[in-house]
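Hey, I was hoping to borrow your eyes for a little while. I've been puzzling over a protein and I'd love to understand its fold better. The fold is given in discrete form, as structure tokens running alongside the sequence. I'd be grateful if you could look everything over and explain what you see. No rush at all, and the record is pasted right below.
>
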Amino acid sequence: MHPTPTPPASSPATVPQWQREWQDSFRNTGELLEFLGLEPHSVAELPDLDPRFPLLVPRSYAERMRKRDWNDPLLKQVLATRHEEQERTGFIADAVGDLAAEEVPGVLRKYHGRTLLVLTGICAVHCRYCFRREFPYDELPMTRSKWNGVYVRLKADPSVEEILFSGGDPLSLSDANLRWHWEQAIAIPQIKRLRIHTRLPVVLPSRLDENFLGMVSELSKFKPVYLVIHANHANEISKEVVSRLKALRDSGAVVLNQSVLLRGVNDHADALVELSERLLDAGALPYYLHQLDRVRGAWHFEVPEETGLKLMEDLRKRLPGYGVPKYVREIAGAASKTELIRK
């Protein structure tokens, strides 16, 4: 399960704004519902439904939710319901075969030439459809000396040309820790590029502060960096998110977005078109639209594949080609993402 973030050890005066905002996140369902003007009722979401994967929502993200609306698309992504307790055939703990692809703790090799490093189990938000909600994060390397062994291993493997930082969320690390990992990765001669997968720029845009942007500007000169964000609905892309993403792009990063097709959140063409338009306005290229990974507890988010195919037809009619994400499914053991197309 995801570890719970702990307050920074340094004094308040030295704690970056993004960490202060993060520590002020909603961690209690009742408090979030009260903030939104919602009264629990017979079919309402329950507080602390799963203590191993508790509610965690930054206030800046909650402020983008519609007040007094149980069907708000952002609220639905983070609020637990009794559906999570219901077992469904085919929905399992390790939906994408992470454990079978794990060479050593924290190091996943699924696709040719690419190695994914799970740097941390900590996120700034707990999305109820998370495909790694039951990943064994407690087995990850916990010290730089242990991670150093990982980078020595990668340096000795000429087949690895791209390193992916993932989690959890790698941007939940401090700038100093992230810089250390980044420097180890780009120092490997055969590495051509670095990719960072993160949801923080969307749910906690203050993370893209001057210090982080300066690091991107400095280190991306050595090896290209691709920052893959995760937004599912246009309402997530606030004016602040747009501003910060433009600054990120100006700092030298290539910015892409991955979305998940979610029932009740973005399973209609208008929502997906608006999301792509908003991302393009922010300089983020729509990259993938994922069919839901069938992780245990997330069955109620699944959209039929046939519906997804119809939605893609609508998107191709209404968006320029560069604004249409690839509709894909991740299949455990497959050599690549599987693009879903009508046959």
